[in-house]
Amino acid sequence: MALAYNDVVEKRDAIDFKTQAFINGNYVEATTGKTFESISPIDGKIITNVSECDIEDINKAVKAARSVFEKGSWSRMAPNKRKKILFNFADLMKKNILELGILETLNMGKPISNSTGDIAACINCTRWYAEAIDKIYDDVAPTSDNLIATITREPLGVVGAVTPWNYPLLMACWKFAPALASGNSFILKPAEQSPLSALRVAELAIDAGMPEGVFNVVPGYGPTAGKALGIHMDVDKLGFTGSTEVGRYFLSYAGQSNMKRVSLECGGKSPNIIFADAPDLDHAAQMAADGMFGNSGQVCDAPSRLLVQKSIKDEFLEKVVSHSKPWMPDDPFNPDTLMGTIVDETQTEKILNYIDAGKNEGANIITGGEQVRQDTGGYYISPTIFKDVKNEMTVGKEEIFGPVLCAIDFENEDEALQIANDTQYGLNAMIWSNDLNKVHKLAKRIKSGKVLINNISDGDMSLPHGGFKQSGFGRDKSLEALDQYTQSKLTLIQIK
Question: What ranges do the domains of the chain cover?
Fold first, then answer.
């Protein structure tokens, strides 16, 4: 999408923010009347005040979602009819792509070109599941002649989702698109840092033809609204994307309540393994920088541990430093900007503390490492690269969630494998080598939900996304996601 700065600013200044909860097809104030400030990390200023939902609001949303599910106006609608409405929904997102992108940029400071790109991905995701849903067939089991056994898919019922601030609408869409396509009712609790795009898109769902109560958005805080959704006895499934620490809470909530299904996509500390025989070292260096500094490093599967074979370490790191230069933070509303802000002051301080810890533990910064553009009032950190990192260092083992790349050297493939697997996480891994035997061997032995070879992108909707170990379980994207939002039923018929 071609963007002009003046057009972006004009549209931004004319936006009428949706700030209330969206329950049962209507915008409503929180029951308590409370609001919280939505602050832009671009300049630290208040954008607007948003309804702060609590237990009572969650109860209202669940009641509405359950009621419409039981009526069957969506859950029992023919798949090809749901498909049509979801296509309408995608079309409306496309029509409002600039507005939705601006809301995301205002909320979490990513460059406008990235934000509109994320909305385009939401559109694609919604269309993908809409197109798929009337092509999913039920099964007939091979039984004896006097029996007919069918295995059918049914929607779960009321699905809740708690989503992160780094990709506000896209991470939500990875959940609501397959959930809605399957016939479920949906309740979204967006991150308190970035609720505005979700609140706007809820209205578009109704405009597209979705029955009232099918799509609900309840902004609020994790310990109140998030917990209320996770522990609710009438929520059948909870999808979560966020930190491993918070993911554990939702496992506990499920056990404390109705044993609802839970799927978790949590933290990561992904190894990016560069061998001397990589097909193109300059390209690998470019991808290492792009993969790490995109979205200001606030990406769960970012290649944050750069494992480089010792024989090429110095040469390769010089290339990565060179490719990091264009990623210096700038105005997020400038369509040419590559890297924007950190999401808020708290996350900024967290990242800066990690940078200090790395220096104190003996790692050496070869570029970046400081806060920049402080005169704007916003939160910006330069692209930062550490060398001489050891896996046991704090910066080597903990998820920083910022533009901080940690380079670790290794001698051979056995050492690379040991370092790669020496982590509590298992979300993503990358290997760069021309040796097919080595690549296949390592890919089989790396404990990760995905392993990318001579590549860092897995954006195709047909590819599943999810982790091993404490990166969580369950899968977003692909047909596998439909399994998260449906349940199979056996019907056995006796024939005389």
Answer: 5-266+473-490, 271-461
The reply to whether 104 belongs to the active site is no
Q: Round to whole Å and give the CA distance between 205 and 212.
A: 9
Looking at 3.40.309.10, 2.60.120.260, 3.20.20.60, 3.40.50.1100, the CATH number of the domain 271-461 comes to: 3.40.309.10
- Residue 304: predicted pLDDT: 98
Q: What is the mean pLDDT of each run of 10 residues along the chain (496 residues)?
A: 90 96 98 98 98 98 98 98 98 98 98 98 98 96 95 97 98 98 98 98 98 98 98 98 97 98 97 98 98 98 98 98 98 98 98 98 98 98 98 97 98 98 98 97 97 91 97 97 97 94
Q: Pick the catalytic residue: 104, 300, 399, 413? A: 300
Which pLDDT score is estimated for 102? 98
pLDDT at 327: 98
Taking the model in full, what pTM does it have? Answer: 0.96
Residue 265 annotated among the catalytic residues of the structure: yes
The single residue of 265, 266, 399, 413 carrying the catalytic annotation is 265
Is 5-266+473-490 a CATH 3.40.250.10 domain?
no
